[in-house]
């Protein structure tokens, strides 16, 4: 090779097309492992003359840690290691096809070439990613439509609300935008694992199981100054309200811009969405999963205890809790450590709830192992199993005496309507059956007992076995809250308390009722309303009691999660107490998006967003935020004048789409009376 620096043609377009990396906007070669890519460089006089290539990654590359490979020209690509095959050569340049092994470490590589005894010449750098399209890769996904969705799709739908009333919102994962790949590589280099032992950490980066666990720790700020700082207080000064984000790009960019200071603030869906972005970017098929009535079992006994006072107020006692919903991730890879039946979808959870191995990380837990109650298998089986299966115990707690009395227990409460976005469509798919056998079936109870036994919870000193005060008596009455009318912010809330006497003699009941605004984690924030009533129910009689909570009563108290918990604690004379409760999630008013005309690549198109103020007073401080990968750069923010009662606003803005195909526009509208009214629209961009 001549003394001049060889100039390299990385064949960016062709290689990207072959490697499913065309969506990255980079001047650097980005390829997937276990697959050949072609480069051409000049300055080689006779390529057959013992060219040697050197590919290296990480701070101290070595063959022992598989972070350094040296390979010469061969006649065919190697199945095992790195290899180089001459495609064509002329007097001044040579084209080489380079292949990496299926289990290569992923990350940024430096590539150089050496001829004979001269010193190596740098050809430049390239980035190597996981390859779900390749059958030898640990993340291989045989269904290409699933590869498209779980690796290449930049838009997602996250499900929220509660199990009686599932809502959803769009999210812009944006894994191919701008500098996101570099930020994802930086995240790996800032983990505790890397800081403690960079050489070993980099050598493990061939393994999706290892990286999934490391990144579940890095996406939350606990322990390691990771990406997002969690906040479940209901007060978000000094940062952004978690409900206001619409995509991961802004979060990851902010983290980098601030010199890697945690971004304020996140809640579960934010952690899950950011982890989806990072893993899809690196090539690991990943999706978000929402579990409704999700248990947070802090003490590992597969039971969640909730406490109420005599007035029916939900007390903050004990570390256990049940969230209206919780969002985590599933990533797709094989589990060589557990065996073939445990491969496939693996649960990862980046929300900092409990420590695992001394830091806030969770998973990967094989979904199959969770379904079969095999909670002892790595990693964090008991916690994930409890999230979807724990039994609920409801207690009356007397703070004066410290006495607790079991009101009732329920084994079918936790883990409902487990949801994810459909492949290739904007729809919900229910995956509950992939996590557990049918609720209430003999098989489901058998698996629950098996899990308890594996956790050593079945011996005769079982602290969770029913004690005297825990023996359930049969209640004399039953009760439920029914919704009458619409559940919308800005409207009065109309409910019915339905009480039924189950006995053949009359019963006198004193009912204490409360309504609190809560976070989606059911943490109480403000009391909205309280009332009590006395009633005598004739034998087998059912009575309905209408409850009206007016908008002005709850407007100031409502959190941005728009959730209200209503409880009625029924004290039956000479009988046991009955607890009636319901978690209500209110809907925001609607907002409408219209695309005026055809959306074409590199041509302006006008979009109109309309909103009608549904309440009897003016709304002000109105802001419209818009984002969408390949439709506009970054986030567009528009200020909107105040709207009088029932007034309609119409806002127009222009987009210039940069790529053809189905793209999604995400809109978030907020003002002084309404927080984060979100919607999305699919825009079909043509060439």
Automatic annotation (TrEMBL):
**Name the record gives this protein:** protein-glutamine gamma-glutamyltransferase
**Catalytic activity, as annotated:** L-glutaminyl-[protein] + L-lysyl-[protein] = [protein]-L-lysyl-N(6)-5-L-glutamyl-[protein] + NH4(+)
Q: Which family does it belong to?
A: Belongs to the transglutaminase superfamily. Transglutaminase family.
E.C. number(s) listed in UniProt: 2.3.2.13
Which GO MF terms are attached to this record?
metal ion binding; protein-glutamine gamma-glutamyltransferase activity
Which residues of this protein are catalytic?
268, 326, 349
Q: Does the keyword Metal-binding apply?
A: yes
This protein's species is Agelaius phoeniceus
Residues noted as binding Ca(2+) in the record, renumbered to the chain:
389, 391, 439, 444
Q: Does the keyword Acyltransferase apply?
A: yes
- Report the gene name: Tgm3
